[in-house]
Amino acid sequence: MARLIYPNKSWNGRLVALDDGHGMETPGKRTPFIPEINRSIKENEFNRKVVGYLTEILLAHGFRVLQVAPTDEDTPLPVRTDEANRNNADIYVAVHYNAYDGTFSQTPNGIEIYVYPGNLNQESGRLASLVGNYLRKGTQQNWRGIKEANFHVLRETNMPAILTENGFMDNKREALLMIDDDFQREVAAEHAQGICEFFGITFKGTREAFDPETLKLGDLGVQVRALQENLLKLGYTMDGYGADGSFGPATEEAVRRFQRDNGLKVDGIYGPATRKAMEAALKKLEEGEEELEKLAIVVNSYADFPAVEALAIRKSAMIALRKIAEQRVVAEQIIVAGGGTQGLKGSNFIDLSGSNRLETAQNISDYLKS
Ligand SMILES: [Zn+2]
Fold it and tell me: Which CATH architecture has domain 3-209?
């Protein structure tokens, strides 16, 4: 079923129907096998991501968005166009990726946009040329022009409708672009620019959609999903919900708990201060996860290096200075060559320290023989 999405801000009065082309498993709609990534890429992997990003940008500009086929299934074309008509969408935009002969041999490349035959000089044609202008300026691809075709989604829609083909699945370079996140965002942004211009609405960029200042209850999208993934990483669960991209009460409560634990203002809003604290917490977490050395030999100073060199080579251990080993755990197991274990961080020690250098050297030598 179609999904009607409202902007968080006041509505600009326009509804855009977005169509992501096919189902994820629709037969044939995929690239040839690509050895570099050991798989083929499905057309819908690209279409759906672009429709998702385009939705976010349009919402940030006050549009309502109707996703006519938001599921993995291949929604029948009449269902897509009926939903757009029933909801009185102002325009219909279908996002696709082209195919030629299904091999990487001699495939054309580039972008083309389709309108219904006879509509080049109508509103559909105007929309196509505006979107096309931005696609041409942005992506470094061959421009194949605006074409006419008797496609169902162009014929059966009651509103201006375009179908964009953003590259060729069976052109190797363009096939790999399909899963390039920067490319997906760029294609979405260029569609949005054309759509904004079509309605006379000022395009304000993608920052608000892709990198908003704050996230709060009711927000949707990729940024919310990223926040939720980070909350889970840090151990803040959300009533059993996963990262679903929807900022509901459980997400708000998790943000509150994070704020409480970090001495921040507890308001459940993910703003700049909370973002900064979370980035620091994630950094700390990552550093803690860094793999520890298996074995290290702790010495008092560089002067002790020669005494432990043979040991280090034999045991494939790193040599650490006592000053460092007092600040952090330098390895899972630590051989102490002088000075004892007092003050060292760690839990698994082999102490070879003698009462003087000579005794320590003897202990090392015995240890090597053992
Ligand atoms: Zn397609």
Answer: 3-Layer(aba) Sandwich (3.40)
